Amino acid sequence: MEQTLDQKITDSIWAAKSLFQRGKATGSVANLSFLHEGNMYVTATGTCFGNLQPEEFAVLDMDGVQMDDTKPSKEWPLHLSVYKAKPDAGAVLHVHSTYSVLWSCLSGLDESDCMPDYTPYLKMKLGTIGLIPYEKPGSQELFNVFEKGVHASDGWLLSHHGPVVPGKGIMEAFYALEELEESAHIAWELRKVHAE
Fold first, then answer.
1. Are strands 162-167 and 91-94 parallel, antiparallel or unpaired?
2. How many Cβ atoms sit within 10 Å of the Cβ of residue 96?
3. What's the pTM value of the predicted model, to 2 decimals?
4. What total number of domains does the chain contain?
5. Of 69, 143, 173, 174, whose CA is between 20 and 30 Å from 127?
6. SUPFAM superfamilies, per this entry (predicted)?
């Protein structure tokens, strides 16, 4: 059964606040979106996950045409690319969580699936993690390279930037993002052990 708009906003605010309170989203640089009745609701530019408000969502149609007066996050094209490439996606989360960013800075990663699956849960919750080459955040160059790589994987690490994770709804995206960050933490710690 389709959730109401109010339910989706409530879940989004809860997920955002949880990520912020535990240091997995900082400042005003994270963004999220969800679909409702054929439109994309995306967090407004400059919003903070720690105190996200119900009125801080911009509304765009699936062609990227704005439907209201709230200025969307400058990275809304990343979200739109996910929805167009992944028909099952109903929500997208993008943060700059520490271990995912650390892992994305390593050289020699497999671009089609850059995250080791030391535990089974990443594959169960999300799948393969593509590595998107670095381009300046919010730039057309970033949107172009993301669009080229979006079909090849189930979730993505933007190199030197952070994860982009979809789900059928915001809570599924939240659980998948949690698993990706935990997998990156485990991989980082094991890398240190292996280097000793």
1. antiparallel
2. 19
3. 0.96
4. 1
5. 143
6. AraD/HMP-PK domain-like
Tell me if 165 sits within 8 A of 182, measured CB to CB.
no
Per-residue pLDDT tens digits for 122-173: 999 999 999 999 999 999 999 999 999 999 999 999 999 999 999 999 999 9
Which amino acid is located at 84 in the chain? K
Tokens of 161: 């930037």
Active-site residues, by number, are: 75, 121
CATH number of the domain within which 163 lies: 3.40.225.10
Question: In degrees rounded to 5, what are phi and psi of residue 99?
Answer: -75, -35
Domain containing 50: what range?
Answer: 5-195
Tokens encoding 80: 């739109």
Count Cβ neighbours within 10 Å for each residue of 148-179 and write b for 16 or more, e otherwise: ebbeebbbbbbbebbbbbbbebbbbbbbbbbb
